[in-house]
Write a structure and sequence with these properties.
InterPro entries: Dimethylallyltransferase, IPT, P-loop_NTPase. There is one protein chain. The chain is built from 11 helices and 6 strands. By secondary structure, the protein is of the alpha/beta class. The chain folds into 2 domains: 189 residues, Rossmann fold (3-Layer(aba) Sandwich); 69 residues. Helix 9 runs antiparallel to helix 10. The longest helix is centred in the C-terminal third of the chain and has 36 residues.
Length: 309
């Protein structure tokens, strides 16, 4: 059927198959950039729920090692795919695609906004680019939280120190099995911190009583955790850049470098004034993400209608 419209009147799509696409927000960024904090802040401005897209955080356990948000930090916002899987199994990108699709559907049915966040960019790619039905039904607004690597690496190093103070070693020790052959390629055992602590914990299990040797092994393990976390951040950043250049994604880049730099300077001044605040608070490990991070993000419904940066 051909529809004739008077001049000046908007055209109307009479195709019965036409439907307005549902909106989905995706918060991306390298490890340590404050994705979870930003996602939660955004979720307080909408009727929204959050879907975790970090592979290691999908698994049960190792909450400190994987840097999961605490119940307090969630601020009452429902989270999906967070700490739900048996740590022995592999949760693949295809698994995420299927589970995330169901979560998105249930969130939309409740007239709420799905916000996806996490560091496993292959998960996002599988959902957005390898899922024709998702592309047909949903329109994504991508927010890329970017921090200059030198600044981010310094922050990551400090975050690892806070995680160690909060009990990272004991957490890995509880999952460590000295009788088993070392295997760190499946499930949650792939998490940074497991393989790196292996030599130290094996020495401990073998009854090495030389405190100097054990301390050296521990410090070496911590250094490896920092190094490999920085390597991960670099790799994640490269992946995001490739996605920006190769995919037609509606990407909004939020440069948080200055905010992180100010936070570091403020923290340094605070530590100079008082050394009594050095220990992290329970439930706040590694989560001292700058509170001004949302300053460059469109507020309210604007975020769903802005052009990419």
């Amino acid at each position: 059927m051909k529809l004739f419209m008077s001049p000046g009147l908007p055209s109307i799509n009479m195709d019965p198959s036409f439907r307005r696409k549902d909106k989905v927000i995706v918060v991306m960024g390298a490890t340590g950039t404050g994705k979870s904090k930003l996602a939660i802040d955004l979720a307080t401005r909408f009727p929204a729920e959050i879907i975790n897209s970090d592979e290691m955080q999908v698994y049960q356990g190792l909450d400190i090692v994987t840097n999961k948000v605490t119940e307090e930090e969630c601020r009452g916002i429902p989270h999906h795919l967070l700490g739900i899987m048996d740590p022995k199994f592999n949760f693949t990108a295809n698994d995420f695609k299927q589970h995330a699709s169901l979560a998105i559907e249930s969130i939309l049915e409740r007239d709420r906004l799905p916000i996806i966040t996490g560091g496993s960019n292959s998960y996002i790619e599988a959902l957005v680019d390898d899922h024709p039905e998702f592309r047909m039904k949903c329109e994504c607004c991508f927010i890329w939280v970017d921090v200059a690597l030198p600044v981010l690496k310094s922050f990551v190093s400090e975050r690892v120190d806070r995680m160690v103070e909060a009990g990272l070693v004991d957490e890995v020790r509880r999952m460590f099995d000295s009788t088993a052959e070392a295997e760190y390629t499946h499930g949650i055992r792939k998490a940074i911190g497991m393989l790196e602590m292996d030599e130290y914990l094996r020495g401990e299990a073998c009854g090495i009583n030389d405190e100097e040797t054990q301390e050296r092994l521990l410090q070496t393990a911590i250094s490896k955790i920092k190094e490999n976390t920085c390597i991960l951040a670099d790799r994640q950043l490269q992946k995001i850049r490739r996605l920006c250049s190769r995919r037609n994604w509606n990407m909004h880049r939020l440069d948080a470098t200055e905010v992180f730099s100010k936070r570091k300077s403020s923290s340094r001044n605070s530590n100079t004034k008082s050394s009594g605040d050095a220990a992290p608070r329970s439930g706040a490990v590694g989560k001292e993400t700058p509170v001004l991070l949302t300053a460059g993000v469109p507020r309210g419904p604007e975020i769903l209608h802005t052009k990419p940066m």
